[in-house]
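Data availability excerpt. The first of two example chains:
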Amino acid sequence: MPMKPDSKIFDRIRVKPDPERLRRQQLPTCEWAGCENAATHKAPKGRGAEGLFHNFCIDHVREYNKTYNYFAGMKEEAVAAYHKDSLTGHRPTWTMGVNARSWVKSNAGDENAPDPSVVLRRARARRTPNPEPPRRKLKSLEVKSLEVLSLTETATGPEIKSRFKELVKRHHPDANGGDRSSEDLLQEIIRAYNHLKSVGLC
């Protein structure tokens, strides 16, 4: 049963406030000359006033943004320097090693402070050259092909190519005065090299 307005326990009618209306009532008035609308948007005041903002309504913040230029009045060199500094977040930077003396001075009385030269020496000592990638396990035919060229299983691609050229020059009839006695060996060397090449070892 609905409550009557003249009831003893009736206090008042509560209406849920419009949140948008409340928000607009709490906002300042637009700073644009002659505008009475609520300032719903902020706009930066510009260079030299970082962190400070104008309060505008939506229409006037759009007008303001059309003409806003942070770099207005700055020379090209200054704009370029600003962009370069922005790469480091406008924080100061130094060339490597420039501040070593100041670091030593600041830690001069501290017996536990590490010596920068010792730290660098240790870091260099820890550096090792990049290890060679692990070599795949060779199959029996690949091992035999290397043996024909008188090479071990650890032979590199350039070593295989170099040995092949050397053996061809030694056993080819054109290079050994027409001696055909090692012609079969030459064919075997060529087959071994071609096999090694086909499996990607050279």
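And the second chain:
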Amino acid sequence: MSQVWFLLSISFAGVWQEGAPEAKASDWAHGRLLAPGVLLHQDTVESPRRNHRHIVRIDLKQPGLHLTTTARTADWKKNESETKRQTVRNFLRSERRDNRPVILAFNADAFTPWPVPFDQETISNVQGFAVCRGHLVSPPTGSPSFILKKSGDAAIRIADNTDKPDDIEVAVSGFALCLKDGMVQPSGEDLHPRTGLGLSADHRFLFVMIVDGRRHSSLGVTTAELGQWLLDVGAHDGINMDGGGSSTLAWWNPDAAGDDKAELLNRPVGNGRKLLTPEADQAEFSERANGNNVGIWFQSP
């Protein structure tokens, strides 16, 4: 499967000071339009270290736009057998087979048990609140969640037992807030591939940021750096989602040859290896089967 790289002219890379970039508003007019209300920007930054970034802005007010996530298993048991793991591309493919024509998909929350064979579709337990089209997948655990209600209202907050799944289109969760009320949250110095979800102050735009890591060409970021970059591109609140080998962004390329048009937009390291030489970096990518994923699709309003 060919890799898709869109190197756009605009750069979000600001001037870095003391390990964090200077805030610089993005000009989304230069983004690549993947679908109505869905813009993609990909770039390479050199400071504080070289990294490939893949950033999507999703207009949650776009007519006909819907989100979906991994559904619960047929023999669902809370906190035990909640979902069946899938790679992001397999999730995209299966949603399309189920008449939800997903055009963009990405990974979401952490899962257990781990470690397990990285690419096998085993049964998993999702680690935070998850709802799929009005059905509870995983109960609240105190971690922050992105919640999109059927009314169209969106929020990043901690869910509790008063949240009614019947009212929710999609909910997914992550490890911790990396951006809160416009303030970047402090973090450690560990560098990894990252997946971040951000929400604008007016709750209209959802931002998805995937940063490649564990590669010679892209070394990864801290969670504070992820929060700063989400702030730079327009988010007011942001969550550090499952990262590492899980961080994956894929789309359905209508112009691709053949029937299977599911293509990766980043270069995941699903097997967990560190590819720190140019030769290994160029030769290898691998996809991890994740406990839950998120997809964007359209239905005529």
